[in-house]
Every structure is written in C-alpha cells, then in structure tokens.
UniProtKB/TrEMBL annotation:
<dbReference type="InterPro" id="IPR053892">
    <property type="entry name" value="MoaF-like"/>
</dbReference>
<dbReference type="Pfam" id="PF22036">
    <property type="entry name" value="MoaF_like"/>
</dbReference>
<protein>
    <submittedName>
        <fullName>Phenolic acid decarboxylase</fullName>
    </submittedName>
</protein>
<feature type="domain" description="MoaF-like">
    <location>
        <begin position="9"/>
        <end position="92"/>
    </location>
</feature>
<dbReference type="InterPro" id="IPR012674">
    <property type="entry name" value="Calycin"/>
</dbReference>
Length: 108
C-alpha cells in the first residue's frame, strides 16, 4: 500500500519567517524533494534537498532535511492554517547552535 502524497506535493510557497528571512519553497510532485531559494538578504542562495516527511495530523506535516552546508532544518507545516514552526541547527563557535522560529506560508 502506498502512502498518500503530502498536501504540499507539487506546490510552491513563499515562506516568511519571524526573523525576516524569506524563501521560495518548491516541492516536487511526489513530495520527496524541496528546492528552496533564498529571498531578500539570502537572494541567490538555493539548494535541492531530499525530504523526510511524516503526517502527524490531518494536513499537518513534520518535514526535515540536511543541507550540504551541514545545516539541519525541521518544519512542522500546518497546511490548515498555513503556518510553520521551524527549528534549524548549524555548527557554530563552540558547538552546535539551534534556533526556533515561526513563519507563514503563502501559495505562490
């Protein structure tokens, strides 16, 4: 039995984070990959990443990936309210650093 496609599969969203960061997130048709593109201060940065996805409630998804830079990103995407809780970590001075943020999704 095949799992149903995630609700974000084949869609593109503008993702605006509470710290001012913004991204254009384009999800593959099968929901297994993401191409994110930085906007504003992050313009010109992008990556195509493999996703790990679990639906934790109707239209609410836990989505995680690791970027080539070593940054890890975990989202709880609520497609009912178009909101996201995001936790990202990276290697900083003295060890791993993490930040928790909220954001909004706008279909693009």
């Amino acid at each position: 039995m095949t799992a149903p496609l995630p609700g974000f599969a084949g869609r593109t969203y503008l993702f605006e984070v509470d710290n001012g960061a913004a991204f254009r997130n384009a999800y593959s048709a099968d929901g297994t990959r993401l191409r994110w593109e930085g906007l504003g201060e992050s313009a010109g940065q992008w990556e195509d990443v493999k996703l790990h996805v679990a639906e934790v409630a109707p239209r609410i998804y836990f989505v995680s990936w690791t970027e080539t830079s070593g940054i890890t990103v975990s989202h709880v995407m609520d497609l009912n309210t178009l909101t996201v809780k995001v936790f990202w970590t990276w290697e900083g001075e003295g060890g791993r650093v993490g930040e928790l943020h909220t954001g909004r999704l706008t279909p693009a």
